[in-house]
């Protein structure tokens, strides 16, 4: 639960307290201050959070990022109340975590899409890609589907309809190669370090941004992708004013403009 403390001393007697649910609140003679603890991936998530911090501070809300590297324990920490929100995942992934682990977690709002994207260091457009080109794609369930789906949308393959309905696919679900290509399934962390081995490669834009690659963007998902990155919270906290203020600040027009300008299409704000 989100916490608040009221000042009970003089000018220098501000108090802070750790509260159940992980949120810390501080207060002074100037009034109540709420501290929301969170975990957000470094790029672009924590950069976007840094942009909105001053706006939230004006409302008496302080954002404390305890980590800028989400990992397999991040949703567990949120469920256990060690943090108040996380910002690194899309809703289909959160739902899979909830189903697998029984977390009582929900999305408080979609913020931006990191469109999974095809890149190349060898070709400048899709038309240049030859037959029998080798492409690397991530091998985890959701991202492999997303990679195969944009290959389909750009005329390389046809996917089985059942796979499209389930939003899960592997190369075994390809029913036709419209353009002969060789698909290499890799752990997503290995794609950029080995990108020189492939004619083109497909990866998440946050990985491309963190690696600061200069590869040509060939094609990617659009803003209508169902994989918007979200603010995840415990269900009991979804309607808390501080959480709502956080989401609103992330969705404000000026924040969207910041995202569009800073990331130049590599990150797309949810409209």
UniProtKB/TrEMBL annotation:
Q: Which Gene3D superfamilies match?
A: Periplasmic binding protein-like II (3.40.190.10)
Q: Which InterPro entries match?
A: Lipoprotein_NlpA
Natural source organism: Agathobacter ruminis
- The source's domain of life comes to Bacteria
Q: What is this protein called?
A: Metal ABC transporter substrate-binding protein
Q: Which UniProt keywords apply?
A: Lipoprotein, Membrane, Palmitate, Signal
A Gene Ontology cellular-component term = membrane
Task: Tell me the compartments it is located in.
Answer: Membrane
- Record membrane topology: Lipid-anchor
Q: Where is this region: Disordered?
A: 1-27
**Annotated Pfam families:** Lipoprotein_9
The text of the family note is: Belongs to the NlpA lipoprotein family.
């Amino acid at each position: 639960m989100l916490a608040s403390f009221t000042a009970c001393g003089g000018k220098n007697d501000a108090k802070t307290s750790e509260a159940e649910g992980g949120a810390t609140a501080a207060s002074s003679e100037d009034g109540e201050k709420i501290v929301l603890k969170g975990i957000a991936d470094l790029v672009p998530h924590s950069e976007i959070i840094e942009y909105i911090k001053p706006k939230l501070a004006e409302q008496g809300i302080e954002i404390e990022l305890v980590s800028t590297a989400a990992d397999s324990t991040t949703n567990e920490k949120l469920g256990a109340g060690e943090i108040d929100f996380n910002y690194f995942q899309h809703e289909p992934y959160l739902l899979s975590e909830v189903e697998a682990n029984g977390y009582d977690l929900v999305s408080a709002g979609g913020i931006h899409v990191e469109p999974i994207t095809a890149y190349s260091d060898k070709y400048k457009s899709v038309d240049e890609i030859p037959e029998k080109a080798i492409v690397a794609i991530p091998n985890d369930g959701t991202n492999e589907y997303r990679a195969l789906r944009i290959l389909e949308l750009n005329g390389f393959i046809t996917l089985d309809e059942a796979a499209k309905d389930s939003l899960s696919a592997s190369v075994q679900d390809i029913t036709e190669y419209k353009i002969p290509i060789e698909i290499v399934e890799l752990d997503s962390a290995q794609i950029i370090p080995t990108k020189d081995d492939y004619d083109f490669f497909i990866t998440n834009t946050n990985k491309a941004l963190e690696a600061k690659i200069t590869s040509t963007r060939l094609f990617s998902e659009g803003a209508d992708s169902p994989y918007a990155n979200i603010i995840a919270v415990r269900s009991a906290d979804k309607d808390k004013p501080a959480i709502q203020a956080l989401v609103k600040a992330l969705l404000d027009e000026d924040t969207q403009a910041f995202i569009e300008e800073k990331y130049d299409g590599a990150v797309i704000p949810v409209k």
